[in-house]
């Protein structure tokens, strides 16, 4: 089993993916254990002070004016976790929860939160054992951290609530911890607060979304190239000197990908000197511009994620010189904004893909192919309804592109009077990425059919490899068949990265 070491520095996006998706074990560096032990001494000193310190000797949020006597402080921290574990709705995916827990652990390991080393070690032990707390869809406003989701995780650490075991059994947390030999934590001053005051849920989903979108944007270049072939389009517009006239970095990458994918295409060569069509439609000709702008947006989101991965988000926080200071770093605005921006990207790339697919189905625009690519039009409907499915998904993606971050509902008796809704932005982005995957898969399926119908002309080697992989799962053109399983088979190839891999084995790595 791969092991990820968490230290006082930031975890990498790659480590987030290893822990969240691959089930990697987690350990803490000695440096981080020493840092936590050192700063815990500050909290113990403050706990004995008569002066009120937020989260140590006071209540929380709008109740921060209440001084809590020493004998009630363990109850204070336990009550905080129990009361804030108030999520509702469907269970959140295991990978999201594991990513969230790793990122909270990363902040604990900086030593800036004041928790004891054993608290962090218990988080690492749960991750290594594959014990995943049950977290629910609704409950976070994305400010004061992802409070409810993080509280459900902390609830498991203290041996309460419900978890999923490594083999996905739903059991009480106390039972799962006992079976794994993990002792539940008894929280002391400040520790409950430190476990819930971060943007870890939305950040983990942002890291995974950026990774997924990188692959899907490469796939969008592949499906666009296949469509250019199938619709007898031109590759001349993807020339490097034309792209250099508008030096957007992502645009140059997308155009270079498409040029490489179409290199040596007999289909493209067959009509290179045809002057009947002066220029292709926007959805073909402008594909690198849209996919390129999407790449640049992902790059910006990755930069924001990098800043967040290097952050120690808690309130109050212990500074490097030993002060305990309240702050607003838990506000999720930086993450929420880019999550919303990426949902716009997913919707627009999918919208262009759907328009390309639609051109295949219209005999007035598909340059000599049968209506709807049907074997016997009228008797057969071909891919008519596959485009309906794309259209339904694209319509949903447009709704999901409406930003969450412009909304704010005050909470905690107006103490928390502006919130980011970043968790909601992340949740809808995950649905948008799934939708984009499906739309691109349908374009690939349709383009492969059109390329086959151009026989005896052959596609380029790279696009042909993608077509061949699809043919390993889906039969070629013919009379109508049950279409849903064929679509789902190509969706699986798209989501796994297999379609991109097929192209790259011929064309080399695509950016």
UniProtKB/TrEMBL annotation:
PROSITE patterns from the UniProt entry: PAL_HISTIDASE
Protein name, UniProt field: Histidine ammonia-lyase
Pathway: Amino-acid degradation; L-histidine degradation into L-glutamate; N-formimidoyl-L-glutamate from L-histidine: step 1/3
GO BP terms: L-histidine catabolic process to glutamate and formamide; L-histidine catabolic process to glutamate and formate
InterPro entries: Aromatic_Lyase, Fumarase/histidase_N, HutH, L-Aspartase-like, Phe/His_NH3-lyase_AS
PANTHER family per UniProt: HISTIDINE AMMONIA-LYASE (PTHR10362)
Reactions catalysed, as given in the entry: L-histidine = trans-urocanate + NH4(+)
């Amino acid at each position: 089993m791969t092991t990820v070491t968490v230290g006082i520095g930031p975890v990498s996006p790659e480590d987030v993916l290893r822990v969240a998706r691959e089930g990697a074990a987690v350990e803490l560096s000695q440096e981080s254990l020493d840092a936590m032990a050192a700063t815990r001494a500050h909290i113990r000193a403050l706990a004995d002070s008569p002066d009120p310190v937020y989260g140590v000797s006071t209540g929380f949020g709008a109740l921060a004016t209440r001084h809590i006597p020493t004998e009630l402080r363990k109850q204070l921290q336990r009550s905080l976790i129990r009361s804030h574990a108030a999520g509702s709705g469907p269970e959140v995916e295991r990978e999201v929860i594991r990513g969230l827990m790793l990122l909270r652990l990363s902040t604990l390991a900086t030593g800036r939160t004041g928790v004891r080393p054993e608290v962090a070690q218990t988080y690492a032990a749960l991750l290594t054992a594959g014990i995943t707390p049950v977290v629910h869809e609704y409950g976070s406003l994305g400010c004061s951290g992802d409070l409810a989701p993080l509280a459900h995780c902390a609830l498991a650490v203290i041996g309460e609530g419900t978890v999923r075991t490594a083999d996905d059994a739903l059991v009480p947390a106390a039972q799962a911890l006992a079976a794994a030999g993990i002792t539940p934590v008894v929280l002391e001053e400040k520790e409950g607060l430190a476990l819930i005051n971060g943007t870890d849920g939305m950040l983990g989903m942002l890291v995974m979304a950026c990774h997924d979108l990188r692959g899907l944007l490469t796939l969008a270049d592949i499906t666009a190239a296949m469509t250019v072939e199938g619709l007898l389009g031109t590759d001349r517009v993807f020339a490097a000197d034309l792209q250099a006239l508008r030096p957007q970095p992502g645009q140059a990458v997308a155009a270079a990908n498409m040029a490489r994918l179409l290199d040596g295409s007999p289909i493209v060569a067959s009509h290179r000197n045809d002057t009947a069509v002066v220029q292709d439609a926007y959805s073909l000709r402008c594909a690198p511009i849209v996919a390129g702008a999407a790449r640049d947006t992902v790059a910006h989101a990755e930069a924001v994620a990098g800043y967040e991965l290097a952050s120690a988000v808690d309130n109050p926080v212990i500074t490097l010189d030993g002060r305990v200071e309240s702050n607003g770093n838990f506000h999720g605005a930086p993450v929420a904004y880019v999550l919303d921006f990426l949902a716009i990207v997913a919707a627009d790339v999918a919208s262009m893909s759907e328009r390309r697919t639609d051109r295949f189905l219209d005999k007035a625009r598909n340059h000599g192919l049968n209506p709807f690519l049907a074997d016997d039009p009228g008797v057969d409907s071909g891919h008519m309804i596959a485009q309906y499915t794309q259209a339904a998904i694209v319509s949903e993606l447009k709704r999901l592109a409406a930003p969450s971050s412009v909304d704010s509902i005050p909470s905690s008796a107006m103490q928390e009077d502006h919130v980011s809704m970043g968790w909601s932005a992340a949740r809808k982005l995950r649905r948008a990425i799934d939708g984009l995957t499906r739309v691109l898969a349908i374009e690939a399926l349709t383009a492969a059919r059109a390329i086959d119908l151009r026989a005896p002309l052959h596609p380029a080697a790279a696009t042909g490899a993608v077509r061949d992989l699809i043919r390993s799962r889906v039969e070629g053109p013919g009379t109508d068949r049950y279409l849903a399983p064929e679509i789902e088979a190509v969706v699986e190839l798209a989501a796994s990265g297999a379609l991109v891999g097929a192209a790259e084995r011929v064309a080399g790595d695509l950016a």
